[in-house]
Write a structure and sequence with these properties.
Helix content is about 10%, strand content about 55%. The chain is mainly β and about 300 residues long.
């Protein structure tokens, strides 16, 4: 299988070099913001330019070719590009090759965790870079050891995935093998499942990701989410819940998010969301209320 995937990748590169039928394009997002924060305990305030206030700053290369008979091949390379200091990390987000046919799409390489994508589909703030469910996913995954193959815990390396759509239901399952080189052959194995049902106005999502022997204790860890979003004219409301825990019960975190987005017209959109995070093991809690307004200058430029 390994040889076959390597040959397929070489064929894709060869097709690009020799056949105009293999098409590639560059894409990206640049997001720059000024952020301030005040520590209530000390009264100290800090402010600075940040990259990715609402969306991540990224760049990527996508390519593909139609092979005929319903078969397609594609490749994706995606990395980070900071608008704060100009630094880049080449292709740390995605680096994969995919084959699509009547039985669905098989993707091999570094890619998004499908359980996270399912969670983001019904997040009240669309998994924005700040003050959204994204932060609770990252914190929960880091605390339990789920998917430790990236600094933000939403990508998985050494992974093969399959996805297809049946009516409005899209399941995606992925397996990442041996994402740890220090704790045995099974250490760091990631198994992830994401389900999204899209019925137009109604969207329902669920997902689960398990990491084998992720912590130093050898405990397995699991993240699970369920959510729904409903659109009524200009209003979209969403509710979801997320739980991360270890099999040894050393960590058990639950986050519930609820909120809505309203189209004010003329390119203006308002968003209000509330997140309640609870440590079921330690008893601590954290609440977050966020209000935001964005203005679309055009399809490619947004102020917020």
């Amino acid at each position: 299988t390994k040889i076959a995937l390597i040959v397929a990748g070489m064929c894709a590169a060869s097709a690009y070099a020799q056949d105009a039928g293999f098409k590639t394009n560059l894409y990206g997002i640049l997001d720059v913001a000024y952020a301030t924060a005040t520590n209530q305990a000390t009264g100290v305030s800090t402010g600075r330019i940040i990259s990715g206030g609402d969306a991540p700053s990224i760049f990527g290369i996508a390519g593909g070719k139609d092979l005929g008979n319903g078969m397609k091949v594609a490749l994706t390379y995606e990395g980070n590009a900071s608008t704060a200091d100009g630094s880049t990390t080449l292709f740390t987000r995605s680096a994969n090759f995919a084959i699509t046919g009547s039985m669905g799409t098989v993707r091999a390489g570094r890619q998004y965790d499908p359980a996270f994508l399912a969670y983001a589909a019904t997040d009240p703030r669309g998994a924005a870079m700040n003050n959204s469910g994204l932060q609770y996913w990252i914190a929960g995954a880091a605390s339990t050891g789920v998917n430790t193959t990236s600094t933000v815990n939403i990508f998985t390396s050494n992974t093969v995935s399959w996805t297809n759509t049946f009516g409005g239901l899209t399941p995606t399952i992925a397996f990442g093998s041996g994402n740890s080189g220090t704790a045995g052959n099974n250490a760091g194995n990631v198994t992830s499942l994401g389900l999204v049902y899209d019925a137009g106005a109604l969207k329902v999502s669920g997902g689960t990701v398990t990491n084998t022997q992720a912590a130093a204790t050898g405990a397995d860890s699991t993240g699970t989410s369920f959510g729904a979003a409903y659109t009524m004219g200009k209003l979209r409301v969403a509710l979801n819940t997320l739980n991360f825990k270890t099999s040894t019960s050393t960590v058990d975190l639950t986050t519930t998010g609820v909120g809505g987005t309203y189209d004010l017209g003329g390119g203006l959109t308002a968003n209000l969301a509330y997140y309640a995070n609870k440590d079921n093991k330690g008893g601590g809690s954290q609440n977050n209320t966020t209000f935001g307004v964005s203005y679309a200058l055009d399809k490619q430029v947004t102020m917020y």
